[in-house]
Amino acid sequence: MVAMVELIEPAVNGTHNVLKSCSESNIKRVVVVSSVGAVMMNPSWPEDQVKDESCWSDKDYCKSANIWYSYSKTVAEMLAFEYAKATGLNVITLLPSLVLGPLLQQDANASSLIVIKLMTEGCEEVENKARPTVDVRDVAEALLLLYEKPEAEGRYICTSHPCSDGELVDILRKHYPSDKYPKRFTELKRENLSSEKLQKLGWRYRPLEETIIDSVESYKHAGILSNK
């Protein structure tokens, strides 16, 4: 219950307060950062169909499975579009996948911990989780693109590489040899996301290998990861 409140109230109330302030300031267009969490959790979506902007996470499913992050993102994004319809404010949403890349802060966040744990925990076997990934610098470019392009409207999934933990480890091991990487991976079902709509608007993204290397180097620079 605490986790539910901590995730939902800031997402929903924060979104409403920002949009209300924008309306009161006569701002015409707002780009709201949501998440692919508002897309991915839909058990009714056909398994052989790539998930795009027409797919919404099922709120009832999220509640029953206690997936409160996806629930909060879904509710907040729906609220944003409802507010836009009621007030005439031009609202666009950007839905990034797992965001990696150089850190601005000196502390690890949830995304960076995924990479750091793969490098340091020394597990023999882990689940080969799907990690649709995007570079934080490419997310910044997408935000600017959506704000500036007059034809931008609705939702935009922002993802670049449909990688897995095993593929991340392959890149990491190539550039940072170690005996602490997982040795075996338990295969899991993969789900695919499409950023075709955003790419048609002119968005481009950098290679995954560049993102991973720049991420690790920033962790070292911040003192989060050993330079050894």
Task: Explain what you see.
The chain has 228 residues and is α/β, with parallel strands linked by helices. It is 47% helix and 17% strand. The strands form three sheets. The chain has a three-stranded parallel beta sheet with strand order 1-2-6, with helices on both faces. A three-stranded mixed beta sheet has the order 3-5-7. The chain is globular, with a radius of gyration of 19 Å.
Sheet with the most strands, sense and barrel status: 3 strands, parallel
Strand order of the largest sheet: 1-2-6
Class by SSE composition: alpha/beta
Q: Helix proportion of residues, in percent?
A: 40-55%
Mean pLDDT: 93
* Stretches with pLDDT under 50, minimum 5 residues: none
User: What is the count of β-strands?
Assistant: 8
Distance between the termini: 42 Å
